[in-house]
Amino acid sequence: MPVLTRVTPTRRLAHQLRAQYDERCLASGLEAWATPDIVTWDELIERMFLLDRAAGRLGGRWLSDRAAQLLWERIVREDADVGPLVSVGGLARAAQQSWRRAHEWRLPLESADSGESAETEAFARWCRRYVALLQEHGWVDAATAPTLVHPAAADPGVELTGFDRLTPLQESLVARWSSEGLEVRRHRAPPSAAVPRRVSCRDRIAEFDAAARWAAAQLDGRDDLRLAIVVPDLVRHRDEVRRCVERVLVPLTGTTAGPAAESQAFELAAARPLAEQPVVAAALEVLDAFVHAPDLGLLDRLLRNPFLFDAGAETPARARLGARLRRAGIPGIGLGGLERLAAAQGCTSLAGVLADAREVMSRWPEKSLPSTCSEKILELLSSMGWPGTAPDSNEHQTVRRWRSLVSELGGCDEFAGRVSRAEAVGLLREMAGSVRFEPQELRAPLLVIDPETCAGMGFDALWVCGLDASRWPPPAAPDPFLPRSLQRQHGIPRATAELAAAEARMVLDRLIGSADAVVLSVAEMDDDTPLLPSPLLDGVTPGEVVGWWPTPRLAQIQHERRPLLETLEEPGMPALLAHELGRGGARLLELQSACPFRAQAELRLGARALDEPALGVGAAERGELVHAVLAALWREWGSNATLTTLDERGLREVVASTVAATLADARASADEVLQHLLRLEAQWLEARVLEIVAADRARPPFIVESVEQAHTLHLGELTLELRPDRVDRLADGSLAVIDYKTGANADVKTWLGERPTLPQLPAYVQALGPARVGAVAFARLRVGETGYAGLAREAVLFPGLKVPGTRGAPRGCDSWDGLLADWQRRLEVLSREYAGGDARLAADPARSCEYCHLRALCRIAESDAANGDEDSDGD
Ligand code: SF4
Hints:
Blueprint: E1 5-8, H1 11-27, E2 38-40, H2 41-54, E3 61-62, H3 65-78, H4 88-104, H5 118-137, E4 139-140, E5 157-161, H6 168-179, E6 183-187, E7 197-203, H7 204-219, E8 227-230, H8 234-249, E9 266-268, E10 272-273, H9 278-291, H10 296-304, H11 315-328, H12 334-344, H13 348-362, E11 367-368, H14 370-383, H15 393-410, H16 413-416, E12 419-420, H17 421-434, E13 436-437, E14 446-449, E15 459-464, H18 484-490, H19 497-512, E16 515-526, E17 529-530, E18 541-542, H20 554-560, H21 586-594, H22 596-604, H23 619-637, H24 648-668, H25 672-698, E19 703-707, E20 711-715, E21 718-722, E22 726-729, E23 735-741, H26 760-768, E24 773-780, E25 787-792, H27 816-835, H28 845-848, H29 855-858, H30 860-865
Parallel strand pairs: 1-2, 1-5, 3-4, 5-6, 7-16, 7-18, 8-14, 8-15, 9-14, 15-16, 23-24
Antiparallel strand pairs: 10-13, 11-12, 16-17, 19-22, 20-21, 22-23, 24-25
Bound molecules: iron/sulfur cluster.
Iron/sulfur cluster (SF4) binds near residues 595, 598, 845, 854 and 858.
């Protein structure tokens, strides 16, 4: 008996039929067997065309879908009536679909130019141009090929499997092929006699959860069942569904050492764009780094890319290099600079592949045909060691699909012309974004799938979600490019509400007939909107879900799987060793005051946060610039008496030139955008510096005693090196210690309390000798708030500062001498704590933890959880 080619509407069904065939062969004891010929309808037509052409029955060249889309894009772009703001790609894709639909439903395209709307007129114009191009070049696309192919190319025959119904074009072809002697069969599994039950759930999430628990109960102790949960518009709800199903079937997903997402327990048939598959996303990032000037963010991602040569072995060295790049924040370092740094920082494999890749780039012309680009793209990726040495099965399939996509790009010479490297990569990214791809490996007992893709499949039991009146039947969605009257007349699905209802009825009947037990579910609410059941459920018996699966509690599961723990009481870190006692500065006291754990972790263990590369001038850099400008100015002036020799204009010029000199280095390497941002920064700096200098001019005479000069403070066992921003000698010979601040936290209250938030100034006072100091002050540089804030022994020494013990002074400092004594005692306590290895968590988490990067290390959240809120995963 001749073996017929089996033809399916979807790739997934073709894959499933092949897998079932393999299983049958294995079960019957075969060790080897011929691969069954199972293809989709589109694959069959393309194959027939190529066979006809090889046999001389047809001429012309095959136009792939991708090439056809580029052609449509060209046509739309060249249309003078298309406005500049529309998305050419989106419009071209829609037009291509309408072209295909018009052929499948055998619409007379000459009637498309009915003048019904601007859209139908434009489409008719584009079709005329498209047809002319096809004729001019002898191209045949997937829409026009079916009427041309010869039945002999499908010899000995075909068996159509899993089609809900054939389009008019398919019907006519099947009739013609049969009349010309080709055997054509239609296979339909007999519908089951299932009596569906209908259930209601509170909302969509409750519905997914109920379906997942139903599946878990059915599969409990059974490994011979095949179940499905059908979700309309699954691509949109993919993540919600996955979370619900995982929570029930694979509750350990996401816990340490738990199974990977989408484990063998279920299969989610919702293809993602190829561009979102991690291995392809990694390839696109590599290409972006080479065809654009890479910013620090892109370079950092390149260093963390796990699909490059030796990424595993060099992970620590690349991570250190990434941290260094962030810290240095070198703009415009480029790949050449990265290669040099990589070689110097122990990333020799990375440096080697970067050198190889840059050599490939030197042979890739700035503009070339897509075929050259495709060749260079593959060469470039291979020189970087992509996709690594051990791709798993899914990655292997994804890489294969990606390579075929790059080859498709290479076949676009005629349609795209010469393109730049960046354009070629952009084109490829767009192609990968529009191709939906799912690796096909899982053989899980539960399949989560959408209603269209499961056409032709059979199950032991089925749950269909989303059957509310607003979605089932879906609203009418006529094709915007085809005349509505023609769509109605030819019965194109969803052209009218009646046609949408008929389509929905047919799909629902098919779903009900595809399993022995069927549950149909409806959500009662969508956010705050009540939902009604679909009218198509009229007559379906309401029922309860049979078999129930308890709500899994992650905390309970973790508790049950807990390892045997040995409890060790460890109140802190070991006390400082002799060589550690001399390390540190004012930051040590600040951290110890806020959180002993953080001080020990950052300063002794080096647990520092990665720097964030930022566009323009970040808060820290701004602070450094302010310090640098004021330091330069006061070193030059020496006292505020000098200011009296400068008129307004002269002062402005001096400040402007000092700011310009301070920013000169940054400007030298800045691109256009950063130049603009630096100009804005210079304006801000000049304005704030002039404001604070105006305040200094109004103060009683003073001499600048030192600027950023190092002082040593012996505090208990510790020896700290401190560097006050500025120390002024006041009229009575005492000192004023000044700290520049651009942040919002420059407040006297930060020096007070048992654990002062900013203990730097109290520490400077100790270092200079409390008896010599007459005032301490923040010099605040902020829009609308520039000026001095602080405390002084006497008001006359530094007008504007508060005097402890007098009206207006903050509570908690009753006298200047008492304040100095308190500071000494509190600083000594902090010093003792740190030297002794005290590593308690922050006493005031609300104040200290908000911007701390160490939450995962100190596990402060778990200590909160211990106080009650255990069931945060809620049921
Ligand atoms: S998160 Fe809070 S408790 Fe933990 S280290 Fe940071 S400041 Fe300390």
